[in-house]
Write a structure and sequence with these properties.
elongated
């Protein structure tokens, strides 16, 4: 279904959209706006998914075992040593 809507854009946005149409990249100004909204929707959904994943990671970490600073330092040093060994350093 298509809905007709009226929107205001800046002169610069209008010139850019019209240039895209003139260059044949889009069939109409409506197509330019529709593509812009689709890109914004995709970006928003991606950011929402990333935020949900980050929240889930924080939740898992908060519910996991607590490490002291010393234990954490030892684990980090071990990981670094293993990586150096893997790269022959």
């Amino acid at each position: 279904m298509t809905v007709k809507a009226s929107v205001s854009i800046s002169d610069q946005q209008d010139a850019f959209a019209r240039r895209l149409v003139e260059e044949g990249r889009y069939a109409s100004l409506s197509a330019v706006v529709q593509r812009g909204l689709e890109l914004l929707r995709e970006e928003t959904e991606l950011k929402d998914a990333e935020l949900a994943a980050l929240k889930a990671l924080v939740e898992r970490r908060m519910n996991g075992p607590f490490l002291t600073a010393e234990e954490s330092d030892r684990q980090i040093e071990t990981m670094i040593a293993e990586q150096k060994k893997a790269y022959g350093l």
